[in-house]
Each structure stands twice: as C-alpha cells, then as structure tokens.
Write a structure and sequence with these properties.
Layout (H helix, E strand, L loop, with lengths): L4 H18 L26 H6 L9 H4 L11 E2 L2 E3 L5 E5 L3 E6 L19 E6 L5 E4 L8 E2 L5 E3 L3 E6 L2 E6 L4 E5 L4 E5 L1
Parallel strand pairs: 1-8, 2-7
Antiparallel strand pairs: 2-3, 3-4, 4-5, 5-6, 8-9, 9-10, 10-11, 11-12
Amino acid sequence: MVVDPGRRRLVLVVALVVWFFSSNHGREDAAPVADPTQAVAPQEPATTQTQAEETPSPTPSPSPTASQHLTAPAPDDAIEMAAFTTPSGNISCVLGDDSVSCTINEHDFVPTDSSCNDSNVQAFTVSVGTDGEAEGSCGISFSAAGASLNYGASAKNDTFACTSTESGIECWSQVSGNGFRMSRSEAETTSR
C-alpha cells in the first residue's frame, strides 16, 4: 500500500497540533490536558483579583461602649461582672443591658414607695436605666447573685458600673451618670 505524500503531511500536521496543545512546552502555569475518556467535574469560576477587591469583607459590630459616649465611666480597675453580692451578703446587684438594680435585704430606713407599705420589713430594690432617674420599690424577694465583690472594688458591664464600700454600694449609668447609693441606713439617687 502506497501512502500519498499529501496525506502523510496532513497526518504529521495533525499529530504536531495535538502534541502542541497537549503538552505545556516547559511552562509551569499551563493546565494539564484532561483525558477525554474520563469525566470531568464542573468547576466554580475563578475569582479574579478585581472581583476580590470589589467584595467587601465583613467588619465586626462595635460594642455598646465603643458607640456610646460615656459621661461617667467605670473605674479603670473595674471587673466585668453581670451580677454580684456585697461581702456582708446583704446587698445583691445585677448589671443588665438596659439597667442596673440592687436589692438590699435588711435595712433601717423606711422607703417612701407605696409598694413598701410604710415598712422596712421587705427587701428594697433600686434600679436605674441608661437614661432617667433611679427608682425604688419593694416586692422583689432578696436572692444573692454572682460572686462577692470585695469592699473597695468595682464591677461593670458595657453600660453600667457599681462600687462596693464598707458603708454600702453605689451604682450608675456610665452613659448618663445617673445612679443611686444604697446602705443599711439609706437609699438615695446620685448623679456623677
């Protein structure tokens, strides 16, 4: 059988073209050629540098302290606490997101709030929110909460702060400065 020289050139050209496209000619960045007999899984489109720059990355949300102006910040050494009880065990406080409140179990003063029935027998609770004045009432039963906060120490969260002393407790809104002081002998509103 005699092969036509034109046909031989055509086979040679086709072989060269296949070889050219199937090899990477020493280039490291060339992708390997897939075997046509094997199935290829679809791939996600590659992200270009421009697409990556256009997509904003998530940013953390600012904490309440970072976004609020603090009129009366907590002392620098204040401990992050959600609740505490004084060393005497007579006053217990809760620092919440919207208010701070303290309840005193035994006290000598007679609260003026009508819920106290002109008596000092019931536990008395005083609360202050982010804004506004402190308010007190009876009717909440006393329950020790959290760890003991030593005398001379302070507790805080993002919005409220309290300081414990041997004579009682003082708590306030770091945002407004409004607060209260509570001891066995009295409960009064304060402003910083």
